[in-house]
Design brief:
five-stranded antiparallel β-sheet, 10 strands, about 20% helix
Length: about 210
């Protein structure tokens, strides 16, 4: 029963959220044709312009962790050249979307369900935060570090994000710093700590078998 209520409420609000796309700022180059095709596609019909990857949300149970279901150019090739993409973000209680950036687009987030603590840091190192309620929108400016946190210990949250690029990109700050092989000494000096602390962070973030 809980999954049915979750599904119905989520999709009724998700339909209205598609209006978000109309106000995102396009960041991709203009194309000189109606649309761009994919080299591996030989037949262009309605199927090419249809993305079915969100069907997994229909009738699904509430999330048990943080999950991002994306519809960008990588998942939906018809978006190439259209300067738009989409993501559904699911937050189990107490979960976070860690600090990250989107180098090629702003993000306009619409909170469908629950509450979220959100924030971003500008280029003067000023932090802007807000506690969002259902129905609120929040914009994360292009390229700036930002995060979302479901601080509610009991309830999940659902958000829909629109981007003004078919390929906005995501740069995770923790992963970029601690899983890409940057020298331990460089990181220790940067964070004014010791190598042992850096190695502990790298171990915590390393993929587990």
């Amino acid at each position: 029963m809980a999954s049915k209520v979750f599904s119905l409420k989520f999709f009724s609000l998700m339909i209205s959220s598609f209006a978000i796309i109309q106000v995102t700022t396009a960041g991709d180059p203009d194309i000189l044709s109606d649309f761009l095709t994919h080299p591996n596609v030989t037949i262009i019909d309605g199927n090419f312009f249809t993305f079915t990857g969100m069907r997994s949300l229909v009738g699904s149970d509430p999330p048990t962790t943080f999950k991002a279901l994306k519809a960008s150019m990588a998942e939906f090739p018809a978006l190439n050249g259209q300067s738009v993409s989409f993501a559904v973000l699911e937050y189990a209680n107490g979960t976070i979307n860690p600090p990250h950036t989107h180098p090629r687009s702003a993000e306009l987030l619409f909170l469908v369900e629950g509450t979220l603590q959100v924030g971003f840091v500008d280029t003067t190192n000023k932090l802007f935060t807000q506690k969002l309620q259902e129905g609120d929108l929040f914009v994360f400016p292009k390229g700036l570090v930002h995060f979302q946190y479901n601080a509610d210990p009991q309830s999940f949250a659902i958000a829909v994000s629109a981007f003004g690029s078919a390929n906005p990109g995501t740069v995770s700050i923790p992963n970029t710093l601690f899983t890409t092989g940057i020298d331990d000494t460089v990181l220790a000096k940067s964070f004014k700590t010791n190598v042992a602390t850096i190695q502990a962070l790298k171990f915590a973030l390393a993929p587990k078998p």
